Each structure stands twice: as C-alpha cells, then as structure tokens.
Amino acid sequence: MAYQAPKKSLGQHFLKDHNIAKKIVCSISPGSKNILEVGPGKGILTRFLAEKNNINLKLVEIDKAYVDLLRQKYPAVSEVIHDDFLKLDLKHVFEGKFNIIGNFPYHISSQIFFRILENRDTINEIIGMVQKEVALRITSPPGNKTYGILSVLLQAYYNIEFLFTVNPAVFEPPPKVKSAVIRLKRNSLVKLPCNESVFMLLVKTCFNQRRKMLRNSLKNAFPEMDYNEKIYQKRPEQLSVNDFVYLAASIERTRNN
Predict the structure, then answer these.
(1) Residue 112: its pLDDT value, please?
(2) Residue 84 in 3-state DSSP?
(3) Backbone angles phi, psi at 182, to 5 degrees
(4) CB atoms within 10 A of CB 54
(5) Could you give the residue range(s) of every CATH 1.10.8.100 domain in the chain?
(6) What does the mean pLDDT of the chain come to?
(7) DSSP code of 13?
(8) What is the pLDDT of residues 217-256, one digit of tens each?
(9) DSSP string, 133-197
(10) 39, 103 contact by CB (below 8 A)
(11) Can you tell me the distance from the alpha carbon of 73 to that of 232, in angstroms, rounded to the nearest whole number?
C-alpha cells in the first residue's frame, strides 16, 4: 500500500509547482558533490536532486511522517535524517564541505542562516527559498532600511545573489506573502582581519539600537573606546562590512594596548 503523507504539516508552505522546483535545483553550481536538503517535506525538490548524477544527497526532516514518505519515494538518497536542522551536528553530516538547499520554513529562516554562519567553514553554498522580505534583507546593501544584522554577517563570509521571486499561488497552502530564492557562495576569506567574536557582537549591538548613532549605542558594550572619530556619528545602516571590520579591529587594538 502506498504511503500517504500527513494532512497537517509543521507550519510549512509546500511548493507544488514542478517548474519552479526544477529552477531552484538548477541554481546549484555545477560540480556540487555533497548536498544537504533542509526540510524536504513531500520531496518536490528531492525529485530533481535525486536525478542528478555523481552527488551525495542527504535530507534532514523534522516530521517523522515525511521521513517515512521520503525513504519510500527516494530509496537512492544516501540518508534521510530524522532531526531538527537547528540541532543537527553539521560537522558530522558529510566528510568534508557541502552545500545546502531548501524551502526554508518562514518562522525559522533567520535561525537557519545563523546556524549556517556557525558552520561557515563547512558550508560552501546555499540555495534557499525564503520569505521575500528576508531575501531582500540578506541581499540589502548599506544605506537601505532593510540592511541589518543578517545582511552584514552573511555578506562578510558569502557572496550573495537574489535569484528570483516566487508567487504565493505555487504553494500549498498559499502564504500571504511572496517568496524569493537566493544563492550564497562562500567567499575566499578564511578569516576576517579582526577578532570575529568582537565583530559579531559589534554588529548585533549596533543594529539592536539601529536608530542611534554608534557613539550612543556602543558606549555601554565597549566603554574603553574613544568615540570622537567621525565614523561613530553614523548609524549602523550607513556602514559597510569593511567599516564594521575596521571598528572591530580598532576595539581589539584598544583592548590589547
């Protein structure tokens, strides 16, 4: 008897348009070997991924019912992992580096990207479908109101492209907002030229008080700094990634003197 997928999901909007699914899968860079699909659900992306030659494909799915469905439909997939991606030990999924693809659940998409950042030396490329608002935020340049924590942190380590918009009608159930597909490719930077922990704390501190000038938002977190320099009169959305690197390096030098 054929396995029937559950009628209820864990809040995810499932893609039903096969042309869009194929377009997403075709966005993966040629030569990709190790691929982890996040939240495959009923497996519409999996279908096209499984057709690719010479790849080591693994899936991670939190819903046990869909895990059973995927194992039945795609026996050639290397492994269907029944786990929460946010809790999965990504360093032991593959031997070596890998790429990620998925229709990311809206309510945890930002958490997924922070998890990717934690494993940035292992994850080479991400093809992700997210809420369009999140896609615009991640790809936003400085000077834009959508430019924020994820913009800076991801752009520091990845080259990011906005690929295309996806309309609600191609999902079941249809979301109330548009979606978009973005591609992130790990850049050649092995390590930022500053203390990376300071860099991340600096970015988060600035944007948590984004309406304030830097000299006002940073003085409690970094009281040792001299805030007379002109850059501290700016607001965080006015700073480039390199500006944040410069400030993090300045903080590190001051602490070491």
Answers:
(1) 98
(2) coil
(3) -125, 155
(4) 7
(5) 196-256
(6) 94
(7) P
(8) 999 999 999 999 999 999 999 999 999 999 999 999 999 9
(9) HHHHHHHPPTTSTT--HHHHHHHHHEEEEEEEEE-GGGEESPPSS-EEEEEEEE-S-SS-SS-HH
(10) yes
(11) 57
Within 8 A by CB and 6+ apart from 171, the residues are: 13, 14, 15, 16, 179
Q: Angle at the Cα of 178 (from 176 to 182), degrees rounded to 5?
A: 145
Going by the DSSP 8-state scheme, the letter that residue 120 receives in this structure is T
Q: Exposed (0-12), middle (13-18) or buried (19+): which is 107, by Cβ within 10 Å?
A: exposed
Q: Where in the chain is the domain with CATH 3.40.50.150?
A: 14-186
Looking at the structure, give the CATH architecture of the domain made up of residues 196-256. Orthogonal Bundle (1.10)
- What is the 3-class SS of 85-119, one letter each residue? CCCCCHHHCCCCCEEEEEECCHHHHHHHHHHHHHC
Mean pLDDT on 130-143: 97
Q: Is the pLDDT at 34 greater than 70, yes or no?
A: yes
Element spanning 127, H or E? strand 123-131
> Could you count the other beta carbons within 10 Å of the beta carbon of residue 163?
17
In the structure encoding, which two tokens stand for residue 163, read together? 């690929």
CA-based nearest residue to 143, from 132, 133, 152, 135: 152
What b-and-e string marks burial along 211-235, b requiring 16 or more CB atoms within 10 Å of the CB? eebbbebbeebbeebeeeeeebeeb
> How far is Cα 30 from Cα 28, in angstroms, rounded to an integer?
6
- CATH domain 14-186 topology: Rossmann fold (3.40.50)
Q: Give CA separation, 219 vs 6, 95, 104, 211, in Å.
A: 52, 44, 37, 15
The token duo for 72 is 């039945």
What dihedral do alpha carbons 251, 252, 255, 257 form, nearest 10°?
A: -110
pLDDT class of 11 with cuts at 50, 70, 90: low
